């Protein structure tokens, strides 16, 4: 069973501009046929108004060349081209001349049909005075058979379905030397179907004459039989800059395209009876499939009842259409009525210059015999000075934290160290992890992972640092008696090499290994061969080897480069078998024996400089990257001990500047990055059997927000903030391809350049756009925005003076939804809340941001065995309830804290100005002794401001299994009294939705700390596989709430996922049976299941399969990247049994036990959907199929929906719609929002980024 509405994940929004050049020839040919005239375009204004659309236009093909179908356009041109090709005639021959030429020739046209195609072929045979034999299924109604005979064809019923009739027609045509004119194709029969598709171009040339070019806001609904008309629509409409969306509609009983799109490959289906006989086809045309797979945005199924009702509607407005033609109207109604036509403004003019990757480093060394550590992290350094901390999470890669850079800063090298382990009563306590960086200065910087700020700098009397390396950790088995922390070696521009010590939690100069040389050859690369030996590659073509005491062991020379100058040794690495490998500017790898210090082998594997290397732990596989953008895989032969290159890939669009590798029991990957700003993960152990994976180059936390009431879109990067009003005038002036530079020059894109050295860490704006707050790690600034009198689309900007904010840095900053509070998360992870007095005028320069309190978090013990220490206590997410009376925050360890607003004056507690102002006073002093006991049970420490108390909720939300990626309160009924701060009222806004790193979706009641009823009924194991299999992580969310729906739209860099929380997923029963039903066979007959089984990079690579009419398949042995032996394809017997199974296969124990207890409490048994007979349902390999309980509903009743059309997504924010009833004046008593969701979706494709990509075409 397939879903009735399917968003095509493979759609390509940037098809090449290849506008067909045959339209004029086809149009000229059709004009020669009897009764030719352009068919009318009919408007359906009543239906458009009812659906809330600007217009619905119906291309009326009920009278085309005196036939009731468009099929004559394709059949006539296909027949004409086939005949002229058979007799080697020019394709410019007039129809009358061709008819004369065919006189006396025994020629027969053959066609298979279950509708109008055969009638059209018969009509063409009558025009040319030749014979036509039309084969039809025996079940075809007599009316249609008589119509074909009347048109001039000899009707021959065949006892078979449509596909069987096609095969019989082909056999008869071959036997009689006739011409088969068929609109479906298969391998070996492709030309004539392609000509038929070309014939339909007349429809779209007429359409453009009638209404002008279509744009990306338009939707074209096309009926699908074998896909020829839709194929023509894709070729003609998707070949322009502004791409309209194409929706394909099929009968529910013949979903051949829907099934194929869902499976990602061409598949045939068994059809059943449908009144849409012309669309009753079981296989999509072979030649059409590729373009349909890339060009159809949405596939939609309609029932016979829906098609009949649409036909009756059209009959009532005087349009004569059969069920096939009316199916498009039924599809349009379903599409809009079920909320899938969300108003999306796609914006590419919002600037965001992504920064190139210069350095990569894993926090732990490789150890294939050790399980992956929870503390494993990847540090990524960029040109703009930012250092990103990525969590591999066993393949669920996520950008977890960002150490902000600043003006004129860059990161050129990164290393991690780990202090010595300690023995205690708790057992062995691992040493703490520390991160160091260099960047075109003479300093080495250590970073405070808990605050995201530099901890210390170490500089000396040497030149700029060009390279950095870290000593391997002390191990008892190495025989070294003295325990010392790891040393850091740095190479400088003057040729010197220095050692620095990390003992005693300091970073101090230890000794110089090599003094500045007369040549001043830069030390470009460093590596520790072991704890006592260092190798340095220099810009004069030499490699120096010395011990850590400074004694030179040898100097190895590479010789002259290709231009007779010195060869630059850009990178050196030491392998496990005492072999040193170097990569140089000649594009060569050179292997050196460190015992004899001789060159063992040289291997030319790049066309330009080799910039980086990454070996595996065993030392027999080596990855290299260079300026030719190639990534080369080199392996060592077991027998000859010689190295050879086995693979070259262009996985980057520019220079590959950095690589790092990691191997554990679960993971074995190489990560690489360069000037294309993209981090690419390649399989190491499974190279050739798994795909590479490009991680999003855009931030995990979107640098994007909106002032919804004012329709103001705000974005930021580095030290700049941009904002623009998204109104109709702007949208009409801006095309999807307009660059940010063009927008700034011609439109209302305004910018603020923040003074200072630090990059922006966070930005917030009030919903009415009155206040804009900008934070760095050292200070915060607030700006007042007001409309300019001369141009309402532009803002007047004025800085709001505040000494308190100016001296207060923040990593996160957020205004409350009502604009009365400003929350700061300091680098020390303290929560500072500022109160904005009600009724304050933004025109006055009063001190609005001086009245503040500090909120107290729950005290939790620090995990002694966590090498990351306080890093995991970094607050990463904050959320406000829609009524601004609740606040929640989450840290990287999964802890959630929440606060509630309560009235303290009414209970005799602290009055305005007493205690807790600016963080002074006892945090608990504002709790009234006379307060209600039930409230005291749920509220703990509190902080008051102006008579209002923010109290920490004592009924704590349990710790979630992984870091939350998204926090959001579900909108509820909001009742507020403006200006009356003493009136605190109840609301239903206390449900907090959390999405974790493992893509678990949980909902809690903040007041009680318990799972909501929806979350109890819908554990994360029931989430559709369409969502749980998505590799990119969640970036943010947008709510679409009305009386009928409670939809949350979750999005990541490559996807948009809708979840209706008014409904249950109800898939538990099917997923428990899935393990026995879902396995399918691939092209080579190997068993393939949906289980995620990879080494941390992409999915398993498996052979491509072609399914033509005859079901041809490739032999698996002919395909590279086969499944390896020992694959665990059959090890998934119990994969779905555990309802808390994480996406990456993590065991149930990884989830906090308290969370499981909450699910069991008061939930009874889980809701199950089973067949009344009790028998198992047969579920195909299409695992995202809705279950039986869902499939009986209409498409809009489906509880989820996903699309991969928009990418890469920088962010999505809600905008105020024309019908929104949001209260502008705070004197209003209620706040309601429209059910019409309007959003701005900002895309930043790589070709729009300001990057120097010489290889990007």
Automatic annotation (TrEMBL):
Residues 1182-1193 have a biased composition (Polar residues). It comes from the Eukaryota. Transmembrane segments: none annotated. Residues 1070-1080 have a biased composition (Basic residues). Residues 35-336 form the Tryptophan synthase beta chain-like PALP domain. InterPro entries: TrpB-like_PALP, TrpB-like_PALP_sf, UTP4, WD40/YVTN_repeat-like_dom_sf, WD40_repeat_dom_sf, WD40_rpt. It holds the Pfam family PALP. Residues 929-939, 1126-1138 have a biased composition (Acidic residues). GO terms for molecular function: RNA binding. One of its GO terms (biological process) is maturation of SSU-rRNA from tricistronic rRNA transcript (SSU-rRNA, 5.8S rRNA, LSU-rRNA). GO terms for cellular component: 90S preribosome; small-subunit processome; t-UTP complex. This is Tryptophan synthase beta chain-like PALP domain-containing protein. It comes from Gomphillus americanus.
